Amino acid sequence: MKSVHRRRAYAAVAAGAGLSMVLAACGGNDDNAGSDNTTSSADCAAYEQYGDLSGKTVTVYTSIVSPEDQPQIDSYKPFEECTGATISYEGSKEFEAQLLVRLEAGSPPDIAYIPQPGLLKTIVEDYPDQIVPASEGTVTNIDKYYAEAWKGYGSVDGTFYAGPVGANVKSFVWYSPKAFAENGYEIPKTWDELIALSDQIVADHGAEGAKPWCAGIGSGDATGWPATDWLEDMVLRTAGGDVYDQWITNDVKFNDPQIAEALGKVGDILKNPDYVNGGLGDVSSIAATTFQDGGLPIVTSGLCYMHRQASFYAANWPEGTDVSENGDVFAFYFPGLTEDDRPILGGGEFAAAFSDRPEVAAFQAFLASPEWSNAKAKATPAGGWVSSNSELDPANLVSPIDQLSAELLGDTTQTFRFDASDLMPAAVGAGSFWTEMTNWIANDKSDQDVLDAIQASWP
């Protein structure tokens, strides 16, 4: 599970974006932007389905803490104003541990944001009498507005419990549009085109010390997770979604030839001294470089041209960086083997209920609705958040990278897969997978030895 790096990503977004909040009216009237008065022009028609909830309180518990919790709190205003309910929000840096403590004590919150499907599975297995299946309204909204895979990630043993409340796209390559334009480089649409572009950059700029790629997998106790994302993205591309699903459950082993093929392709980039690590060092420097610093040479030194990292990396660029299609940096889709092969690797959080009271069922359904997704977008005017709800209006997202993410996530026909290590047993997903991928980079451990070691650690 990657709760460690996900919390750090939230912190990076807060620090990089300097979040200032705008309360969202029920009807999304922009005249209220910057004002605390959101009720005067509220259109509550979409909320009539929830009934009159005056005097009712719903408690919400998440890992999202101040100051990045404010957009969450503000996004609930339309529901409160239109139903009369009160939403009591609490965030904690010790969320994962404390949620289990509360469940053990029999005093859970009404709603909790679960950051990994693996944790949801643990809760269902260990506290089956505490968690309740998703409300009818939640089921309806998920079936209507989300790609099918999302429902599966919020389900355990065929029972649907939790709908997604946020999402991120990991299948991105960051680059400098200006540098590409100056050199006549085009966005690659296939894996072969990506490798050809890398070779062209070596030919054009290798003598200057520039490299096609820069990377960093350092993350304190969670060092190695960015390298696992590389492999996960590549398994989706070379082996496909079905094999990916079997890999997560260990029906396809880590040392299976299909996984080995994917790791070999990752190595074609990350362990190629001609390709990495632009502006930072040799191949081994990837392990010593933090993930926050991994892409910075694109804008600080010009010695790197591409950096594969998730949408949340937008917050890590230096203050004043123009993150846009024609700006200092932007991102393109990490291409598949063919133009038609466009799988998406991503992550997200899920809203699980621990009470079946009507007001709790209604609020859980609201979190799965287009009304909430758009209210949340408007309550995050500095960017850094996106939903996979197909009815999220991209115009409500101010960040171009968030808009691009929403476009990709909103395609309900796509092959979407959740971060594999977040779905694997913790001994692997947050253990050997991280450490062995670090050894692969830092100590040049062989592909086979790395995959054998990870497989040997499977519980």
UniProtKB/TrEMBL annotation:
Residues 1-24 form the signal peptide. InterPro entries: Bact_solute-bd_prot1. Keywords: Signal, Transport. The lineage of its organism: Bacteria, Bacillati, Actinomycetota, Actinomycetes, Micrococcales. The gene is aglE. Belongs to the bacterial solute-binding protein 1 family. This is Alpha-glucoside ABC transporter substrate-binding protein.
